[in-house]
Design a protein that fits this description.
The complex is a heterodimer of chains A (239) and B (108). By secondary structure, chain A is α/β, with parallel strands linked by helices. Chain A is 46% helix and 18% strand. In chain A, the strands form two sheets. In chain A, strands 1-2-3-4-5-6-7 form a seven-stranded parallel β-sheet, with helices on both faces. In chain A, helix 1 runs parallel beside helix 2, helix 4 packs parallel to helix 5 and helix 8 crosses helix 9. In chain B, helix 1 packs antiparallel against helix 2. The N and C termini of chain B lie far apart (31 Å). The chains are: A alpha/beta (239), B alpha+beta (108).
Chain lengths: 239, 108
C-alpha cells in the first residue's frame, strides 16, 4: 500500500490547536507524513511541540524551510546556513537568476514557482536542463488551483500544463503538495490525482508525485543528515 | 447494445455550517460548468441519489467516462453560497450495493 506524503502543510506555527486540527485532518485523509514550513529561527522547544502533535496522530513530521531570496547570493548564504538544520529546503523562484541558481545547486530539494506573481514563472527548458543534472524536484501546490477562479485559474492551469510537460521531458520528479493554510483546502490524495488531470498529469505519475518522489527526497536527506553520513556512498557502519 | 456504465460516489461534506441539498447540487453543477464548460457538463449525467443533512454525506451518480471530471470538480470546490466547505470523495463504486459495502459505518 502506498504511503502518501504532503510536503507542504502550511499549518499556523503559533496556533497549536489549529495545527492539531489540520494534522488530524491530514491523517484522516490518508497521509502518513507531513512537511511543515518553519521559520529559520524557530526554537527547538517549538519543534518538539509540533513533533509531539504529529506523533499523537501517528503521522511523521518533516522539517522544512521555504526560502524566498531576492538575489542568488542571498540564496547561497541561506543554503549554507540552513541546509544542516532542515530536512527539506524549498526555493520560491522570484527572479530568473535565483531560479537558475536554485536549479543547479544540489542543496535545493524543491523548486516552487512564485505564487504571488503568475507572470514570474521561470520553469522553462533551460531551467529544466539544469535541474535534471541535480536532484531537484518541481513542486506543485494544489492550493493555487483551489483558491483561484475564472481567468487566473485558466492561466495557472495553462502554465502548469507547460511546466509539467517540460519536467517530464527532462525526467525531473514532480511533487504534489497541498500548500494548505486552512482546513478547507485539504484534500485526499485521490482528489489531488483527479485535480492533476486538469493539467494533463497521468494518474500513475500523479500517484508517484504524492508518494514515491517526496518519500525518496525525505529518505535521502535524512540519510545525509544522520551522524553516520560521510560523503555520497560513504557511511559509518560500525566502530 | 452495451449497458451504460455508471459510477456511484460517496461524498463527505465538511463544513462548519449546514449545506442543504439544493445548495450542494448547485455548487457541484457550477464547479463542473466552470472547469469543463457546458459540453463537459452534458457528458457527466450527474444525479444526486442520496443526501443526508444529519450525517453530512451525499451519494452521487455519474457516467463512468466522466468520473475524473466529477472528482476534479468536487475537489475544486471551497465554498457554497459564501460558506466555507470541502467535498471529499471517500468511495467510488460501480453499484450502490458495492458502495454500501465500502462504507459499512454509514447506512444509506
Amino acid at each position: 500500500m502506498r504511503s502518501f506524503v504532503d510536503l507542504h502543510l502550511c499549518a499556523p506555527i503559533n496556533d497549536l490547536k489549529q495545527m492539531e486540527k489540520m494534522v488530524n485532518s491530514s491523517a484522516e485523509l490518508g497521509y502518513r507524513m507531513v512537511g511543515m514550513p518553519l521559520p529559520p529561527n524557530i526554537s527547538q522547544e517549538r519543534v518538539c511541540q509540533i513533533e509531539e502533535i504529529c506523533n499523537k496522530t501517528r503521522i511523521e513530521f518533516v522539517k522544512r524551510v521555504d526560502l524566498m531570496p531576492r538575489t542568488s547570493n542571498e540564496l547561497l548564504n541561506n543554503l549554507g546556513r540552513l541546509r544542516r538544520r532542515f530536512e527539506i529546503i524549498s526555493v520560491a523562484c522570484t527572479s530568473k537568476n535565483v531560479a537558475r541558481q536554485a536549479a543547479k545547486d544540489r542543496r535545493v530539494d524543491l523548486l516552487s514557482p512564485c505564487l504571488t506573481f503568475p507572470c514570474k514563472r521561470f520553469f522553462d527548458y533551460a531551467e529544466a536542463e539544469l535541474a535534471s543534472k541535480k536532484l531537484v524536484s518541481f513542486e506543485i501546490d494544489m492550493v493555487q488551483i483551489l483558491s483561484l477562479t475564472g481567468f487566473p485559474r485558466i492561466r495557472l492551469l495553462s502554465s502548469l500544463r507547460k511546466e509539467v510537460s517540460v519536467a517530464r521531458k527532462f525526467g525531473i520528479p514532480i511533487t504534489i503538495s497541498s500548500g494548505a493554510s486552512d482546513e478547507k483546502f485539504l484534500r485526499s490524495p485521490q482528489d489531488y490525482v483527479a485535480l492533476a488531470s486538469l493539467f494533463d498529469l497521468p494518474e500513475s505519475y500523479a500517484l508517484q508525485a504524492l508518494s514515491d518522489y517526496p518519500l525518496s527526497i525525505v529518505k535521502r536527506n535524512r540519510g545525509k543528515l544522520s551522524p553516520c553520513y560521510i560523503a555520497p556512498g560513504v557511511r559509518v557502519v560500525g566502530e | 447494445m452495451h449497458p451504460i456504465k455508471r459510477r456511484y460516489l460517496f461524498v463527505q461534506i465538511a463544513s462548519p455550517e449546514t449545506v442543504d441539498e439544493r445548495a450542494f447540487m448547485d455548487a457541484v453543477w457550477n464547479a463542473v460548468l466552470q472547469l469543463f464548460g457546458e459540453y463537459g457538463a452534458s457528458q457527466t449525467n450527474l444525479i444526486l441519489m442520496k443526501y443526508s443533512l444529519k450525517s453530512n454525506y451525499a451519494v452521487l451518480r455519474c457516467a463512468h467516462k466522466a468520473l475524473d471530471m466529477v472528482k476534479a470538480s468536487l475537489a475544486s470546490l471551497t465554498q457554497t453560497s459564501g460558506k466555507p466547505v470541502a467535498f471529499r470523495v471517500l468511495g467510488v463504486s460501480g453499484t450502490l450495493k458495492a458502495l454500501r459495502r465500502q462504507m459499512p459505518e454509514t447506512k444509506f
